[in-house]
Specification:
Length: 106
């Protein structure tokens, strides 16, 4: 397990993210940019555009090129981070459809 700033990366690829007060302040000005910078340090990046997720939410795919894993990050996850709550992203091996989507949006 590796801990760095507001991220804990587990051996299985799962991530726990929690913003401290300073990160929350920065994220209120640029919520997606702050998260993108944090994820970039872990060889992760957003793929494509946010998509509908459930009835009242949106989500975006995150790809970890180092581990070859994908995560789903929702708008409600962002709201939790901005409230100082911890968010766990589960690492999933991309299926063929996800790999095609990643290739189309690189």
């Amino acid at each position: 397990m590796r801990s760095e700033y507001c991220i804990v990366e587990f051996n299985n690829g799962n991530l726990d993210i929690k913003y401290d007060d300073e990160t929350i302040t920065s994220a209120l000005l640029d919520r997606w940019g702050v998260l993108a910078d944090i994820l970039w340090n872990l060889d992760c990046e957003f793929v494509g555009e946010p998509q509908s997720f459930g009835n009242f939410d949106v989500a975006i795919m995150i790809y970890n090129s180092h581990l070859d894993r994908i995560y789903t990050f929702s708008g409600s996850d962002m709201e939790d981070l901005l409230k100082g709550k911890s968010v766990r992203l589960l690492a999933v091996v991309p299926d063929e459809e996800a790999r095609q989507y990643i290739a189309e949006h690189e």
